[in-house]
Amino acid sequence: MQVLTRSIPLLITGLAGLVMILSAFFPYTSDWGKIAGNFFNIIAAFAFVLGGGNLLKIHLKKVSDQSEGWGYSGVILVCFITTLVVGLGKLGAYPNPDFPNVRLSGETQSSGGFWWAYEYVFKPLTATMFSMLAFYVASAAFRAFRAKNFEAILLLGTAFIILLGRTFAGVLVTGFISPDGPLGGLRLEELSVYVMQVFNTAGNRAIMIGISLGIASTSLKILLGIDRSFLGSGD
Amino acid sequence: MIKLLTNLDRRWIFLAMALCVAVPILVIGLTGKTIPETPTPLAEAFFNEIDTAGESKGRRGHVLLAFDYDPASAGELSPMAISLVHQCAQRGLRMYFMSLWPVGPQMIDESISKVIDRHYPELVYGEDYVNLGFKAGNEQVIKVMGIDLTTEFRTDTKGTPLQQIPMMKGMTSLEDFDLIAEISAGYPGTKEWVLYSATQYNIPMVSGMTGVQAPLMYPYYPGQLKGLLGAIKGAAEYESIVNVWVREQKFAEALVAGGMDEAKAQEVAAKLMDKPAQVSTWTESAEAADLDPKTKAELITIATAPIPGEFLEGQRRMGPQLFAHLLMVLLIILGNVVFFAQRRQGGRS
To answer: Which of A39, A69, A131, B127 has its CA 20 to 30 A from that of B262?
Structure first.
């Protein structure tokens, strides 16, 4: 069984990784990369089905065990199954004008129940969830953003520059400084661009280089079979 | 006062934030006034890159528009997506829409319906724009598109084989595009397009993104990313550039239709754009003596016609953002006043 659970997956991983690396550096092998990519895309499409199955399994178990918060799981299941049936069955969707007698020939993106669920349920709900961040950030700004030490003061100063510089308030506050004069760079809208392009870019580039080196090292470990945690065996 | 602030119920903060957002929305909605925007070099670079797409190859630009976002971030990203399609449509570029996000096709449909269907009905599907839809596989889709486009996309969203779509002729891989314009809300998004297409195949790329993502993408500007729009501020700046440019283009088109030669029309259009309120006076000047009354009337209509609401969404949203940011600054100051007062009291005791 070790062959099926360990050796073959390790071989596939090593080969796929090697092919992708080769295809990036040698044009002759670009077709190999395409084949590996196609396999990946097919597996990614299957992952949607697997994800749906996993969601059903977890929440059916929660409802069946009546564990804490099982009511929410019930809501998820009802919404999931309803959307799936309405979408796959193309309920309410107009048939394709070329095939008016074939009910399933229509598309669900601009008519029918699936479109309705997207437009009037999914869209407002996700937008609401995202909008709520503004309230929590405001509350956090009042309670947690303290000038406790020098680093915190630097952070606060930067926050003020960005918060004001990214709106018309920046123009109002420092509008008296001539944009073409020697102090033009001190206008808040200019300062906010400077902070983002110089300090932010320098810091982020350093982080990115570090992350990239880390990714390269981890990837090599996986491809060479040294790191086997992705097999889920706890090796 | 300090005691009141110390024990301030956070629901008051929520109410203040709600008012800071709701009141400007209502006022801007009722008056139609927006806050003026001064474009930054990043927004100008974004605009210029699209404006010159395809010029190096001496052809009509072929632009890949990747809309990788969902309704959660549509409030921030839709205005820039709409302005992007607006500029491409006005410029006469060929638009290839696609998405790596499952609900991306709805975002594409929204932009097509608000811009092309309403304002550019003369554009033909399959000849001027095509919707390739969503493809699962994240960055791997980009990698395969770099090698062979038709392997990844065999049909468009309507199920039409790509071979039957006129504007897909000769399009075999990412290298056949003159520009990639990406609107991104996260993963997969700008970073993946930079890593697997713009860098690898040296394709010019511009990107608009959420405020959370923007600081992480600045390191790619101006090397891999030729233009960058960060959040609603970037959208508002770009929108204002596009709106001014479109009006100028319409002035030029009207002047050319009225018999003026193209170079002169561009020059006059730029002059009219400087002072649109004085177009009526200009039409009576000696410079406009050769123009027929129909052209003059059209110029006045272009100058006075209000900009459609969908092309002002970014600038409208800067109103709530202004007051929300001011509230945040105020809250930080008040929070620190409480903090220092408490620290002083603690020191005394």
So the answer is: B127
